[in-house]
TrEMBL record:
Pfam families: Germane (PF10646), LpqB_N (PF25976). The keyword Lipoprotein applies. It comes from the Bacteria. Keywords: Lipoprotein, Signal. Residues 1-25 form the signal peptide. Residues 48-160 form the Lipoprotein LpqB N-terminal domain. Residues 177-274 form the GerMN domain. This is Lipoprotein LpqB-like beta-propeller protein.
Length: 552
């Protein structure tokens, strides 16, 4: 056997060589990978070159496959028979650095360093690894063509971010009272030709159901079992989506939930939707509203209350007075339920209500700050991960597997469907987002298994993560401590991460509904919020805030 020929191929060359990039508006500028603001890039791949060698054909194919459906040019690199079998939408590999091509006889092997992948359902998974891809080539009409290759396509990070976009699919929590976001990635639709082009993948994904931590019955889906009959071309600005429910007749409650999920998943920029289920036109559903207060809730001395955007403090003299009397070091409060979970000065977890004395529900040694969900369940654990759920009447030990890691923080999601767990592992800090499993009555029974969790790497063994919070029900934030300053990082669940600058002496971080009300507490007792470009002080400079509360 001959020694394989090995070639290093730069990501931009492997995927973009021979491509012209044409904005859909403005001046045409071939050969660039950037577009003016407000424009959309369209990649125009080249046909196979006559007499090209095997490696050139594979490289050209990968380049052409970075275009858009129906991948007409990419299929020209394949044999006639294989062109009918190749499934480009099965998977996307997001390439982050140099790829290596090696040729051995009629085989070409590509080793692709990837930073993430997207499956056929649009689920984005961060993963830093090298993926081997094998291609077999044969002669067809005197030219090399590929007759065997993996399904899917390979995109560099800039191309992926241009040709794919995240969408927040909406499912329900188990009580059918609140929508829950599940981020997916879909190709950017060519809406200039058909404004309804982006509707089909979202409808199909909704029918397919929730993924990751929201699977295993954690989230409910009104569209489960439905079948898509068709999506009509937009008429008078309205797109008609027609569904059928084989084997059952969906009642008004179910179809109303279908309408809610569909409209909220498509978002405000989508064309108006007319939903038809089993030949019945479904009336427009009223949006669900269960918004948390965007004010900060804080403990100042022996008073607990709200902090307005201008920093004015208003004491809560009922529930707040009882919270303050418990002398808490951490607070999670539900104003809707008039309920709070606190860790008191003695290190015990207590439930505080508007009437009666605080009730201690967990007095084990070394307890972490507890958390509270939308159904009134309090979650508490020591670093060992022996997780309990309590509601003042019942105590349940939850099944959870954290391996050889120790737990440093927990926080329930705003919608009550998942638990954010901060872990210390031998290889460095990690965060896990796991679904909360429940029985038929809604009582927690455990967390989803490892395979149905979001795992987030937070740095090497020397990294120090001192805080974690939900920004909203689809994004989380972390507080990383350094020698001279602390850094706030953000992470989309099922998406990409970012940073929100640095600040010194941060002791806690708390989110509520969006990045705009993400807040930090510093050692001086001041509270700051993120104003879109930097951290701005919200509290009165003379305030000495000891606890920044989490809302649920």
């Amino acid at each position: 056997m001959r020694r394989p020929a090995i070639v290093l191929v730069a990501a931009a060359v492997l995927l973009l060589a021979g491509c012209s990039v044409i904005p859909t508006s403005g001046t045409v500028k071939p050969g660039t990978t950037e577009a003016p603001n407000g424009t959309q890039l369209v990649y125009i791949p080249n046909d196979p070159v006559a007499g090209a060698g095997q490696a050139e054909i594979v490289s050209g194919f990968l380049t052409a496959a970075s275009g858009r459906a129906p991948f007409t040019v990419a299929k020209k690199y394949l044999t006639d028979g294989f062109a009918k079998q190749w499934r480009p939408t099965t998977r996307v590999l997001v390439q982050e650095s140099l790829a290596k091509l090696s040729t051995d006889g009629d085989e070409v092997r590509a080793e692709i360093p990837v930073s993430a992948s997207v499956d056929a359902n649009g689920l984005y998974t961060p993963e830093s690894r090298t993926v081997p891809l094998s291609f077999h080539l044969v002669q067809q009409r005197g030219q090399w063509r590929i007759d065997s290759a993996p399904n899917g396509i390979v995109l560099t990070v800039p191309v992926f971010q241009t040709t794919y976009q995240p969408r927040l699919l909406q499912f329900y929590d188990g009580s059918w009272t609140r929508l829950v976001s599940d981020r997916r990635w879909f190709p950017v639709p060519r809406t200039a030709d058909d404004p309804s082009a982006g509707v089909r993948p979202i409808v199909n994904a909704l029918i397919g159901g929730p993924e990751g931590p929201l699977s295993n019955g954690v989230a409910a889906n009104a569209l489960q079992g439905a079948k898509l009959v068709g999506i009509s071309p937009t008429t008078a600005g309205v797109t008609t989506v027609t569904l059928t429910t084989p084997g059952r007749r969906a009642d008004a409650t179910v179809t109303g939930r279908m309408q809610q999920q569909l409209v909220q998943s498509l978002g405000p920029t989508a064309p108006p939707i007319r939903l038809v289920v089993d030949d019945l036109v479904i009336p427009q559903a009223q949006p669900l509203t269960d918004q948390l207060s965007t004010e900060a809730y804080v403990l100042i001395g022996s008073r607990f209350g709200s902090l307005s955007p201008t920093g004015a403090f208003t004491e809560d003299r009922t529930l707040g007075a009882r919270i303050a009397a418990a002398k808490p070091t951490s607070i999670t409060v539900s104003l809707r339920q008039r309920l709070a979970a606190v860790l008191n000065a003695a290190g015990d977890v207590a439930i505080v209500t508007s009437t009666g004395a605080p009730r201690t529900v967990d007095s084990r040694s070394g307890l972490l700050a507890p958390t509270l969900d939308q159904r009134g369940w309090v979650y508490s654990t020591p670093p060992s991960g022996d997780l309990l759920a309590m509601n003042g009447k019942d105590t349940r030990r939850l099944t959870a597997d954290f391996g050889d890691a120790t737990v440093s923080a927990i926080q329930a999601s705003p919608d009550g469907t998942r638990l954010l767990v901060l872990l210390d592992t031998p290889t460095g800090p990690q965060a896990v987002v796991a679904g909360i499993l429940r029985n038929a009555s809604g009582a927690p029974t455990g967390l989803t298994p490892v395979g149905a969790q979001n795992r987030i790497e937070l740095g090497g063994a020397s990294s120090s993560i001192n805080g974690a919070t939900w920004i909203d029900d689809a994004d989380v934030a972390f507080l990383a401590s350094g020698n001279d300053s602390d850094q706030v990082t953000t992470q989309q669940l099922g998406g990409i991460g970012g940073t929100l600058g640095q600040f010194a002496n941060v002791t806690d971080i708390v989110g509520t509904t969006s990045t705009a009300d993400l807040r930090i507490l510093v050692q001086s007792g001041a509270v700051y919020f993120w104003n879109g470009s930097n951290w701005q002080q919200q509290s009165d400079p003379t305030s000495e805030i000891s606890v920044l509360a989490v809302q649920r």
